[in-house]
Design brief:
Number of strands: 0
Number of domains: 1
Number of helices: 12
Distance between the termini: 53 Å
CATH topology: MetI-like fold
CATH superfamily: MetI-like
CATH class: Mainly Alpha
Order of helices and strands: HHHHHHHHHHHH
Largest sheet: none
Helix content: over 70%
Structural class: mainly alpha
Radius of gyration: 23 Å
Shape: globular
């Protein structure tokens, strides 16, 4: 009889194989000179990587994607974290409604959302059509569940009411209580939400293509353009996209980890 713990290495190995084999195949295809029907390519080269990275559009689209992702993460955090804290503390009966509202974006296709925003704001006297501002707003809508759910789970894991009352009994106001007491205790949820939002927005194609198109070309649009005429260069861009998202995720973890140390030390005093 196999022990329950004996399945863990096998399951972990299958998961790693499921995640790494497609990535390894993509990397191998992006550096191959020719690949017909054999398992391995006839030769290896980096010319496809040089071709896609030496274009000025490569840096421009990568910069646009990073700006869009970071702005969406920041705005989503500023909107969701205080709202979730207020609803859990002041209006606990609103939790089911908040859960429903934040899960609605999962059921709205990107095409429907983009067309609805274009139709609505075309009748509003605001210059938002075909602008990055409308794109950021749309990305915030689709990424709201990714930010709200981790923050809500973190709030449920601690006694928010007790922490708030303890801080206020020591003379702290609402803003100081939220920044100095609540945020350090829900930091894991905030970190998870930031990573999920960044990953979702960085790879977003439908909303970008429909709302702004080539006016604010992002990295996914640049990648899709190469899939039409050169698969190896598109594979190189796909690997670069994965590497950038992975490195930025590690950077977010490092920055948030360093930023939480002074707060924890101050709270310990």
């Amino acid at each position: 009889m196999i022990r329950r713990d004996g399945w863990r290495p096998a399951v972990l190995g299958l998961f790693l194989m499921f995640m790494l084999v497609p990535l390894a195949a993509t990397v191998l295809f992006s550096i191959s000179t020719r690949w017909d029907r054999t398992i391995f390519p006839e030769g290896l080269t980096l010319q496809w990587w040089f071709k896609v990275t030496e274009r000025s559009a490569f840096v421009d689209t990568l910069t646009n994607s990073l700006i869009l992702s970071f702005v969406t993460v920041l705005l989503a955090l500023l909107l969701v974290a205080p709202t979730a804290y207020w609803s859990y503390l002041r209006v606990p009966r609103s939790r089911p409604l908040m859960d429903i509202l934040t899960f609605i974006p999962f059921g709205i296709p990107g095409v429907v959302l983009a067309l609805a925003l274009i139709r609505f704001y075309s009748n509003v006297p605001l210059p938002l059509i075909n602008t990055p501002a409308l794109l950021v707003a749309a990305c915030m809508v689709i990424s709201m569940p990714f930010m709200y759910r981790p923050v809500a789970n973190a709030l449920e894991a601690v006694d928010i009411r007790l922490l708030t009352e303890a801080a206020q009994s020591l003379g702290a106001g609402w803003s100081k209580t939220f920044v100095r007491v609540v945020l350090p205790n829900i930091l894991p949820g905030i970190l998870s939400g930031c990573l999920l939002v960044f990953s979702a927005v960085f790879a977003e194609f439908t909303l970008v293509n429909l709302l702004v198109g080539t006016r604010f070309k992002t990295f996914p649009i640049y990648l899709v353009e190469f899939t039409r005429f050169d698969g190896r260069q598109a594979s190189a861009l796909a690997v670069i996209s994965f590497a950038v998202a992975w490195l930025i995720s590690l950077l977010i973890i490092w920055v948030v980890g360093r930023g939480s140390r002074p707060t924890e030390a101050l709270g310990a005093r």
